[in-house]
Amino acid sequence: RELCDSIAHNHVLNELKASGHKLEPESVSAFSNMLKHNKALKRLAIGDSTFGDEGLTLLAPGLAENAGLEAIELDYKGITSEGVSTLREVFLKNKVLRSISLSRNSIKDEGLSKLSSIFGEAGVNLERVDLSSIEVGDVGMKALGSAL
């Protein structure tokens, strides 16, 4: 919590990589609150494989409101297609995010189809999406191909 309180009004730090650390729900909520206030942070990577859809749901309000974050790394976080629905809502609200990494999550065809649906939405400015090892097949790739 102290870290998030410090970062909330920090105008220098532009990248925080703290993946591989288990975060309790209160800590994820503190990160979300920090993101509502911090404008300097450009890249963020937090949490471990237990983060999951629950962690993403707690982080989403801060991601949606943040006006500076350009990239979020969510590699190997235990995110499923349910979590992708949360991300979809974030990207519809946040017009600054340009890059997301979702590699090594169990997103599967359903999740990739949900994510693909945002590419045609006005104001969504994703330039880089890492979908390595997300357990996707032909159905998901077809959805992505049609969206692009």
From TrEMBL:
- Repeat as a keyword of this entry, yes or no, is yes
Swiss-Prot/TrEMBL keywords: GTPase activation, Leucine-rich repeat, Repeat
Task: Identify the domain of life.
Answer: Eukaryota
**Any one cellular-component term (Gene Ontology):** cytosol
Molecular function terms from GO: GTPase activator activity; small GTPase binding
Q: Which InterPro entries match?
A: Leu-rich_rpt, LRR_dom_sf, RanGap
Record GO biological process:
nucleocytoplasmic transport
Query: Keyword Repeat on this protein?
Result: yes
Q: Name one Pfam family in it.
A: LRR_6
Q: What is this protein called?
A: Uncharacterized protein
Source lineage:
Eukaryota, Cryptophyceae, Pyrenomonadales, Geminigeraceae, Guillardia
